[in-house]
Prior knowledge:
By secondary structure, the protein is mainly alpha-helical. Helix content is 62%, strand content 0%.
Amino acid sequence: xxxxxxxxxVLFSIPLxxxxxxLEIILSNWQHRKFYTVKSVLENLLFTILNGSLDVFLRGxxxxxxxxxxxxxxxxxxxxxxxxxxxxxxxxxxxxxxxxRVDHFCRIFWAVHVTHHSSDDFxxxxxxxxxxxxxxxxxxxxxxxxxxxxKPLDIIFMYAITQTYGILVHTQYVKKMPKWFEWIxxxxxxxxxxxxxxxxxxxxxxxxxxxxxxxxxxxxxxELEEEPVKFGLTTPLSPSNNPFKLIFHEWMxxxxxxxxxxxxxxxxxxxxxxx
Length: 275
């Protein structure tokens, strides 16, 4: 039943994203804006295929068994279907915020996540520029949700919904949403800040759907008119057509750092402290 729901949602979301991307490409070219390059679009598609393939493989290998075991040991049961789905949305969005914050503030996880931030372009296809190795550990953050009484397939279905929303905020065409909206939800303006390399904007706006977590935990930053967003990394990568380098470049730098003749404590900091 829930597999069919996820399949139907995917069948709906893929054409929606395809149409919106096509419109953004046409509009940006018509207005002579350099929002898209063929190279970055192809990279984004490659990374989402690699991420999706790994995700499907790991689902079959152990995702479902881990979630099923966690659900079997759940210590809550929510009977009201409306409360159930509302709480699942809230808990998943919070879990994503925690994961995302760890990805930015712990270097070994940043080494995985940095792929998503490595493009100087920012458009709807950037939402598909997946952190390829993230499925290896992402499921860990959802185990507590299963133990709170939420079914494994419901967790995966809700993640598909929230992730689709997370893709749609990767655009430069929506300047500002209404104030009430931006008080609660992540907007394109919020997410442009997240992808910026400006010092003012670094490691801000981690939420997927709800911006309230950033406001609660001190990682919120509004987009400022006097501080135009500069997309990409603080240290831009040298141009490369090598996908391996784009995925693993930070790991190579980490290896170089920990190979230095330095105290063990410093080596550990190179691994686990903020990048």
